[in-house]
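Kindly inspect this one:
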Amino acid sequence: MNVVVLGAGLSGLSVAAHLPEGCRLFEKEEQVGGLCRSTHVAGFTFDRAGHLLHFKDPGNFSRAASLLDG
């Protein structure tokens, strides 16, 4: 199966993580995370968008954090 995933936001990362090997993931930005990214400037952190994620299961939170590289 040849699968291309466009965008490395949470959804794209999740899809790529659950597909069998051979998936190609493309992201136009320098960092993954989509709207769940933060930018660090002069000691301040700016969220790309309001991205407070609510998880009932701590395992799901850990999984999302690992996809976003911590």
The two ends are 30 Å apart (CA to CA). Helices lie at 10-18, 58-67. The CA atoms of residues 7 and 27 lie 5 Å apart.
